[in-house]
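I am hoping you can look over what I have pasted underneath with an eye to the fold:
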Amino acid sequence: MSCGERLAIELRSKGYRVTPQRAVILETIAHKNGHLCAQDIYIDARRKLPGLNLATVYRTVEVLHEAEMVDLFNDGSNPALFAMRDPHHPHGHLVCRQCHAVFDIDPSVIAHVVQSVALEKNFYVDPNHLTLFGICAACQDDE
């Protein structure tokens, strides 16, 4: 079974229609490593689906995020970025407020904080794509 077929089955199993646009955009995101902005997704997906427009990409990534197949990442300064959600390898981000570098962090590192918030505030923190802001080591050294 191809990657595209597997993704289409997963999307359908979540109760969503598999349109040509959704299939191409989902496959485009899946074949890229890392985080992509909507413009990057549009440029790549348009090669397979020439009639595609940027507004459709934005609407589609919102649907794919709602379906929990794509994660949304916003570092506060750049356009929103999207990446495939991997339930077997969740991760969070550390974002430097000065240089805007982004570092992946294993959610198990912050599991204690997630549990403490849940107990103290009765609030579930999604560790699958958590973003924490601060100052990286290189910027700390510059100060």
Remarks:
- The chain has six helices and six strands.
- Residues 54-66 form the longest helix (13 residues).
- Residues 92-142 form a domain with the Dna Ligase; domain 1 fold (CATH 3.30.1490.190).
- The two ends are 53 Å apart (CA to CA).
